[in-house]
């Protein structure tokens, strides 16, 4: 049964469909695992006494990182598919109306709002212009960059002829070989971590100041304006 998109009182709207909500929480879990394990891969733990085979600590860390990377990638492909078949809100992650003058005017109002120098803009059930910009140019592009560079580095370890090396091996010479890609991949992690921090701040602030439920919306699917 198709769920209604808007309540009779126009104070609630069905924004996040079930596949989008599922993707969001899987994505969040993957990012936590990838960030922690990625940091430990870049800054390994102190050497354990005895034979490495008796501990295999870094092996487990790398396994968790690679597993989360596969899940993250598959989930992103699924999210792209749902943008094609889902409601119009599902497509907002993959497009930004850069040629619209109204979009830039509204975006400036939201920037002023988040900097505490402007009034609260009119509530929007979809992504507001600033969040839409950040989701596309920071989260989406950074995620695609991390997938490309991550699988390129994975392919290097999987050796010549592996499907990872054949599919993503071109990334290494394009970006200046392995060491450069390692550094860029590590920096990309911090870009996503900073985005997540702002994302959480914006969601919580909108709950309080904007009176628009965002945290609950990722559970129920409905964004509700609290009068």
Descriptive report:
- The chain is mainly α and 227 residues long.
- The protein has one domain (18-45, 55-224): Up-down Bundle (Fumarate Reductase Cytochrome B subunit), CATH 1.20.950.
- It has helices at residues 18-42, 57-85, 101-114, 129-158, 163-168, 171-174, 177-210, 217-220, and strands at residues 12-14, 222-224.
- It has a two-stranded antiparallel ribbon.
- α1 (18-42) runs antiparallel to α2.
- It is elongated, with a radius of gyration of 21 Å.
- It starts with 11 loop residues before the first strand and ends with a strand.
- 18% of the residues are buried.
Write a short abstract of this structure.
Helix 1 packs antiparallel against helix 2, helix 1 packs across helix 7 and helix 4 packs antiparallel against helix 7. The chain has 227 residues and is mainly alpha-helical. The N terminus is likely disordered.
What are the salient characteristics of this protein?
64% helix, Fumarate Reductase Cytochrome B subunit, 227 residues, elongated, 3% strand, 8 helices, two-stranded antiparallel sheet
Give the helices and strands, then pairings:
Blueprint: E1 12-14, H1 18-42, H2 57-85, H3 101-114, H4 129-158, H5 163-168, H6 171-174, H7 177-210, H8 217-220, E2 222-224
Antiparallel strand pairs: 1-2
Helix pairs in contact: 1-2, 1-7, 4-7
Query: What structural category arises from helix and sheet content?
Result: mainly alpha
Strand order of the largest sheet: 1-2
Radius of gyration based on Cα positions: 21 Å
- As a percent range, the share of strand residues is under 5%
Task: Give helix % range.
Answer: 55-70%
How would you describe the shape? elongated
| Helix and strand run | EHHHHHHHHE
Which CATH first-tier class would you pick? Mainly Alpha
Mean pLDDT: 88
Number of strands: 2
Gross CATH architecture: Up-down Bundle
The separation of the N and C termini measures 29 Å
Total of domains: 1
CATH topology (level 3) name: Fumarate Reductase Cytochrome B subunit
